[in-house]
Amino acid sequence: MTAATPGPGPGLELWAAPEATVNRIGDRYIDQLECSGFARRLDDLDRLASLGATRTRFPILWERTEQDGGGLDFAWADERMARLREIGLDPIVGLLHHGSGPRHTSLIDPAFPARLGAYARAVAERYPWVTAWTPVNEPVTTARFSGLYGVWYPHRADGHSFVRALMNQVLGTAAAMREIRAVQPAARLVQTEDIGFIHSTPPLQYQARHDNARRWLALDLLAGRVDEKHPMRGYLLDHGATPEELDGLRAAPESGMLIGVNCYITSERFLDHRLERYPEHLHGGNGRDRYVDTEAVRVLGAHVGGFEARLREVAARYPAHELAITEVHMGCTREEQMRWFLETWDAAQALRGQGVKLRALTLWAAFGTFDWDSLLTRPRGNYESGAWDVRGPAPRETALAGLVRDLAAGREPAHPVLQGPGWWRRQERHVYVPHGEVQSQGCGGRPLLIVGARGTLGQAFGRLCRERGLPYRLLRRDELDITRGADVRALLQASQAWAVINAAGYVRVDDAETDPRQWHDNALGPMTLARACAQAGVPSLTFSSDLVFDGRQQRPYRESDPVNPLNAYGQAKARAERALTRLPRALVVRTSAFFGPWDRYNFLHQGLERLSRGECWTAPHDQVVSPTYVPDLVHACLDLLIDAQSGLWHVANRGSMSWYDFACAAAEAAGQSRQLVQGVSTDTLGLRAARPAYSALGSERGEFTPRLEDALQRYLAEAPRRLEEAAPAAVFGG
């Protein structure tokens, strides 16, 4: 993969933008700009420019600008448009992004096109210097979800509503551009659309042909291609479009339109009539046949086309038009986001080298997205980060930003996680029985070293690295003595590891009061290992504990709170923390008592087993903690490592409760009687080591894991299956 393959004319431009959707569900608007904080941070524009971006898709959205009384408030846009001019970041102004307008209109309102045109005229008069416009983002996609599937407002599910929603958006785009050009004659339409592709089994090829023709409708209408011979003209007329509308668009085509291609990994679909291969909740149909409509990447044996195939299609269909990739985003783990962006960049460079008129690639959702896992229908705050993670007091740059900045500057990307293929190219992408011959790639590249091969945490890192396509090597005690710096340095050189995770340790808190080995495992070993890594310039990750605190405060402990351990275990952890946080590239993660789906020995698994046998489950009611789900902990830590973070971080599931309350919550969630859960005081348990009465963890750096209640539900859903997959793991660190 190369960063700067030569192409025709000037180099590939980088554009960047926030996720800008403001859509309506019933009477509720969901505003991504508010969710991500972009609406409140003026300096986010400088962040976009810092990547090397030359343009931004900038939202001056109708729903956000028009007040309930009908007036327009441009104060927010004025401040930001002025800043864009100051920093030289040219805007492509968007007016609707999966939206349907203010409350007085909708996508099926006959007055919608004229009203959108009037709003466009007002925006153009406010900013007459703007020459690039996207009045409506993805008209076909929005019409499908609003008029055909009933997901978004106005929640219709019929062909007539789909066609009217589509026609209104296209006619509104044409009206908007007429009004804009009355102010700025040089204005250019940048029309975006999600150009996916539908695959199918032979019996469903008729439906695939229809869907594949439908995806072009907005672009074909605007380009003046829908004539009497167009395969979808009859469908449009049968479902409410008028000949006058179609002929009017054909008579005034957008000849200078720049076509913006949005293509997501889930945009390629597969229609399968073999219902027995899929769970029942996926079964659907079209009234003629029953079938499943699922992501092609999850079932096709061969890799799906992606951006390169779609761009070839667009270029062949619209040879006179310039192209851009106007959204590149993947809601996935950090390394997969980076692999997807790099693969798209390389595809764009290759196509330019073959003469395709491809101008730019857009980093989309630069500040992440919220609740797209439910198509914005359930505002639960489920977040996917982008080039910045906005869950802290200020946006935190991720490794994706570094990759994008390197590519824009023509530098060869060097992050080690880029050496492996994305999940969409590996065999584990298949959730269902593969269709066709399976083609996949194996993982490659420099490994992560994981110390603690026998422990619960080490095993979890190994499993999740494997799932994420990150090469790794699990190390046992007899393979590496972490108290011998020379041995560590030799292994680092031989393995070419790009980072080291110390998941080992002595975790028998009561035995630690008298066993000198705990100091060896929890202080001396981690300090020696981290120092050797620092000398070699290799990042390291070490774990600490909430037991470094004395429990005297009654709010969650943050990273800057003073430590005062009550027991020997906490003292060793605190000593290691002090040494490691002085080292470059050393990451120290404090966490709390964790529970995982692969471990039969954790507090939850053993307690729930007791309840299933009708036995009592005792738990202290006077120790408040932040129980942490191991997969959430591991994923967050891997992202921090990939992002090259260092210093002290708290990573625990959001929320806190006593062990007794946690047991009761687990019992109820598992359908067991909480009557068998007995709360006891800590002093009745005969523990040798003192515990803090309160050791809940919060963070001043941000909240990077889901809520505890969500983690508990996932544990109960995943644990039975995961335990069947897992080999017996040791109770304590290896």
Walk me through this protein's architecture.
This protein is of the alpha/beta class and 734 residues long. The chain has two domains: 417 residues, Alpha-Beta Barrel (TIM Barrel), CATH 3.20.20; 278 residues, Rossmann fold. The chain is elongated, with a radius of gyration of 28 Å. The N terminus and C terminus are likely disordered.
Task: Summarize the structure in short.
With 734 residues, the chain is an alpha/beta fold.
CATH superfamily of the largest domain: Glycosidases
> What strand line-up does the widest sheet have?
1-4-5-6-7-9-13-14
Structural class designation: alpha/beta
The whole-number mean of residue pLDDT values reads: 93
> What name is given to the CATH topology of the largest domain?
TIM Barrel
Major sheet description:
8 strands, parallel, barrel
- Give the strand tally: 30
- Can you tell me the overall shape? elongated
Q: Kindly give the count of domains.
A: 2
Jot down its keywords:
single chain; 734 residues; alpha/beta; TIM Barrel; Rossmann fold; 2 domains; 8-stranded parallel barrel; 6-stranded parallel sheet; 30 strands; elongated; disordered C terminus
